[in-house]
Write a structure and sequence with these properties.
Layout: H1 18-41
């Protein structure tokens, strides 16, 4: 019978860091601008 021991387990933060929110908003903003420009050219 083998015993598996987990030592030094790191838990991830449940709340994202502000940088993650900034990157998400920047990406969505760029996506919106690209979509808006494509609609204007048609």
């Amino acid at each position: 019978m083998e015993v598996i021991a987990l030592d030094n387990v790191n838990l991830l933060a449940a709340v994202p860091e502000p940088e993650n929110y900034a990157m998400l908003l920047a990406g969505l903003g760029m996506f919106g601008l690209i979509t808006r420009r494509r609609r204007k050219t048609r």
